[in-house]
Amino acid sequence: MEQSTSIKTEEPCLKTHILFEALEKKPIFASYQSFCKKVGQDTMSYPDFEFWWYRFYHGQPVFDHDRSMDPVPKTLMDLPVLLMRKVTENFDPMERSVLRRVNRAMKDVVDSHPAVFEKIEIKSRLGGLSYRLNNKRTVYSRNGKLEKLFKIPGFNVNHLRLYNDPYRSEDDLIDLLPGSLTPKSIDISACTAYKIIKLLLIAKPKHLESIHIDLLESPQVVGPFSRIFEAQQMKQAKFVEVESFERLDVEFLKNFQQVRNFKMELPRYTSERDLRRARDIISTFKGFEKCELQIFDNKIREFCEAFGEVIPDGPSTTVYHRYQIPESNEYLEFSIECDSYSIITVIKSR
């Protein structure tokens, strides 16, 4: 048996096997798998098999070809730098982070690309930290070891989502994140104003366009929530949305006085008086452009009674109201669309 195995793995015998595989005209990798089953998995490397298979496939069945006279095969590192950069620009940042460990030349090529992720979601829970990259993968890290991700040269992200379980201290997450990033949008879920502010300040206000904040506790527990709106990030963002574990009352609207475009939810018990109060508050905002107020109840009757509009008959669920801001030539254009819940849109116009 040992003699038979030895004969089967001698070079002429191996080439004969490859010749028969090539003559069957199967795909090359299927041929290599068949070859390995016959002679053993480690008998010949795939590159060597590929060389002989293609010679035999193209009608050159010469077993004694001297390969030492052939040109040295080119590798990726033999490509011009500009071409290597063109190839690597199609990789995502995590793929590049692996590739940069190949050698110094590859590291220099990879580091010439900005390592910008489209979206990163980081969650801090009782069991540890987890993060999700570009909606593709979730990685769990009980010890919070995200340092390698943040140390990728040129690391940045367009859309950053940060979630902190209210039963876990998120100081470790705050300490772990880079000092500053330039996301276009940031989405923060936390239970104290202090921690929301700390996470919000990671985003540079110059680049930030959209902010979403989710209060995991009631505003009474959160504390001095108005301090969040003092941050430059809130003042310069194009859009701000605030959600809460408990619905925010109309007086909370005062916090948006320096925000151009915002969205929030009002409680089910919002009355005609509350709607008029909302109109009065918004009318004092100097830089205001637009807002959306959601109420998870049909409030078309309250809206009409608050603003003196006619309650529509039949199936109509949309009502409009135009209000001139006192001592101004500007107006607030209200519209309410109702189904099982109400969406009130307010736009400032001239």
UniProtKB/TrEMBL annotation:
GO biological-process terms attached to the record: innate immune response
Coiled coil regions in record: none
Record-annotated F-box domain positions: 73-120
InterPro entries linked to this entry: DUF38/FTH_CAE_spp (IPR002900), F-box_dom (IPR001810), FB224 (IPR040161), Mos1_HTH (IPR041426)
PANTHER family according to UniProt: DUF38 DOMAIN-CONTAINING PROTEIN-RELATED (PTHR23015:SF4), UNCHARACTERIZED C.ELEGANS PROTEIN (PTHR23015)
Protein name: F-box domain-containing protein
Species for this entry: Caenorhabditis nigoni
Lineage of producing organism: Eukaryota, Metazoa, Ecdysozoa, Nematoda, Chromadorea
